[in-house]
């Protein structure tokens, strides 16, 4: 894991693009033991900001609980060194547990979900940074706002006082050719620039294209952990 991580960080550093994206590590591929090892390694390598993404609330809870339990006082110190981000689709019945675990949620795919989240946050007197999920190809099988729905969504969600829209994210249609993702990344960047938001785009197979298109955050999982 260490050699793969160092190699990847060097690849990003040597990329021809001048922007310096943050890396969101998708740790769904790791069990709780590997998760703790990775967090320790990333902290040791002084990766900052250290963004850790999980898809499922229950998996996230198991890993955080193990981190805190296995390392005792070190666990709390390590937890403070990374930002824990929900990147999978969030069910309403999981909101309470998610709010106790995650620092941000990057998968808000409806105004209704945002409203419910805001209501729960009010009871906790807490604010939360969120990313809106954009269905950039308007795929009926995928979650998220269609590009033409974004203006209405932002206007509505800005009324929820306990939520802050930090950015937008997308997952373009899967393809073996990374270049096929370029027009979708370009479109997302244009939307983000228009609304002065950050972008989270690109995964293990197409992160370099996303980087070239100005991604603020790239998401890496299988390239490191499989």
Shape estimate: globular
Order of helices and strands: HEHEHHEHEHEHEHEHEH
Fraction of helical residues: 40-55%
- What is the CATH architecture annotation? Alpha-Beta Barrel
| Poorly predicted tracts of residues | none
Structural class: alpha/beta
Strand order of the largest sheet: 7-6-5-4-3-2-1-8
**Total domain count:** 1
The CATH superfamily is Alanine racemase
Count up the helices. Answer: 10
Radius of gyration: 17 Å
- Between the first and last Cα atoms, what is the distance in angstroms? 9 Å
Characterization of this structure:
44% of the residues lie in helices and 18% in strands. It has 226 residues and is an alpha/beta fold. The protein has a single domain (2-14, 21-225), classed as TIM Barrel, CATH 3.20.20.
Q: Which helices and strands occur, and which strands form pairs?
A:
Elements: H1 2-14, E1 22-26, H2 32-44, E2 51-54, H3 57-70, H4 73-79, E3 83-86, H5 95-101, E4 104-108, H6 111-124, E5 128-134, H7 150-157, E6 163-170, H8 182-195, E7 198-200, H9 207-212, E8 217-220, H10 222-225
Parallel strand pairs: 1-2, 1-8, 2-3, 3-4, 4-5, 5-6, 6-7
Helix pairs in contact: 2-3, 3-4
In short, what is this structure?
With 226 residues, the chain is of the alpha/beta class. It has helices at residues 2-14, 32-44, 57-70, 73-79, 95-101, 111-124, 150-157, 182-195, 207-212, 222-225; strands at residues 22-26, 51-54, 83-86, 104-108, 128-134, 163-170, 198-200, 217-220.
Task: Give descriptors for this structure.
single chain; 226 residues; alpha/beta; TIM Barrel; eight-stranded parallel beta sheet; 44% helix
């Amino acid at each position: 894991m260490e050699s793969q991580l160092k190699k990847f960080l060097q690849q990003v550093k040597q990329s021809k693009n001048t922007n310096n994206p943050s890396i969101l590590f998708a740790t769904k591929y790791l069990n709780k033991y590997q998760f703790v090892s990775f967090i320790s390694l990333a902290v040791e390598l002084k990766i900052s900001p250290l963004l850790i993404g999980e898809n499922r609330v229950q998996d996230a809870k198991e890993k955080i609980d193990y981190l805190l339990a296995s390392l005792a006082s070190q666990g709390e110190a390590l937890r403070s060194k990374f930002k824990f981000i929900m990147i999978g689709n969030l069910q309403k019945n999981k909101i309470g547990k998610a709010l106790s675990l995650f620092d941000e949620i990057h998968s808000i795919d409806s105004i209704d979900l945002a409203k419910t989240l805001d209501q729960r946050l009010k009871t906790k007197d807490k604010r939360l940074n969120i990313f809106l999920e954009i269905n950039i190809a308007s795929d009926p099988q995928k979650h998220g706002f269609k590009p033409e729905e974004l203006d209405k969504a932002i206007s509505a969600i800005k009324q929820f006082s306990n939520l802050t829209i930090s950015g937008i994210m997308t997952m373009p249609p899967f393809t073996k050719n990374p270049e096929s993702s370029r027009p979708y990344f370009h479109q997302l960047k244009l939307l983000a620039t228009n609304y002065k938001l950050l972008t989270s785009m690109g995964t293990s197979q197409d992160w370099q294209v996303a980087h070239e298109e100005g991604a603020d955050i790239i998401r890496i999982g299988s390239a490191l952990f499989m």
